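Input for the complex:
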Amino acid sequence: MLSKKTKEAFWGPLNINNPVVVQILGICSALAVTVQLKPALVMGISVTIIVALSNVVISLIRKSIPMRIRIIVQLVVVAALVTIVSEVLKAFAYDVAMQLSVYIGLIITNCILMGRLEAFAMTNNVGESLMDGLGNGFGYAWILVVVAFVRELLGSGKILGYQIIPDSWYIANGGLYENCGMMLMPAMALILVGCVIWIHRIANEEKK
Amino acid sequence: MKTDSNVYTIIYATVLVVIVAVALAVVSQVLSPRQQANALLDKQKQILVALNQDIDAVANPAALYKELCQDTIACGNTEVYVFNVDSATKYVLRLHGQGLWGGIGGYLALNDDKNTVFGINFNHESETPGLGAEIVTEKFRSQFVGKHIKDATGAIRSIAVLKVGKSAEEGQEQVDAYAGATITSTGVNDMLATNLEEYREFLMEGKEADYAE
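Predicted:
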């Protein structure tokens, strides 16, 4: 059904060519929104939608774009999509929009977006660009989810806001457990991303 | 078509910008009533929490707000909301200040003596989850209930937010800061102090002028 190239465009970024752990792009937002799982999920979904749509739009108009202003055109398309997503979130998911605050706007500066537009959508057809956008979005999202899962569980004892570590385990209630405050610090996200990269490299060693 | 010519480039850029501008304007127009409704509902929910109402158990918080809210009194540049909870008058003051990463705010509900705290609610833009963000929790907020914002002479004396073990000045009441969130806690402390001053006219209404410091 799908050509080999299209499949590769989708599956590559999920693993072998992951934007975060292999190309080391989009790290800044990975640090900022991964303290809890819910904003990380929304951020992952938002980025996926924006990368996929902007890839499609740029791919559609790729032959008409004047080469000298192509980066500006890409930026305008991305900025417009980001603004729309941000407005939609404010209208339909107000709590999450407030929680993500400035980071939705900062998707515009996410290197994954400009990277995909310039490297892929400018030279490939619409179908392949859509799959490439979805693949890169999901590739980014799953790293965020893994990091956020670990940080929220160990940092606040919760998952998606629900208490997972029993209250009775805590020192305050006579137990022996204490949340790891380090997990709440941005630096810990970097260390966790480092751990994911490490495991990812070990797992993919033979394939290279 | 020659896409490299100057004329083409300028026309292309102009058309693109116009299309994008129209699209954004339409989206903004269509969604703005919904966004404003969300913002209003969010504010009403926050005030209800400050009034110790269990908003999760209420099917329609907006209706409950309407039922309880009696009046708003202008006070300088700001306003005081008057509520009737269980047939007692409560005053709600809006708080706004600065935390560690961004703005913090909240609503302070006072009994009709304009002195005893009935309830309080906090919100924040981007405080650290697990640390500064804990100011929104029941555990932190409940400390304020029953505290007084005036000293024995009737002068305004804000509630201090202090590290566990430290004591406030004579005549000032205090609550425990959240451990590890020093700057946010200081922000709450300063927010209370400065905002109560903004409401001086309302809080000291009917009192002798010499109570003012």
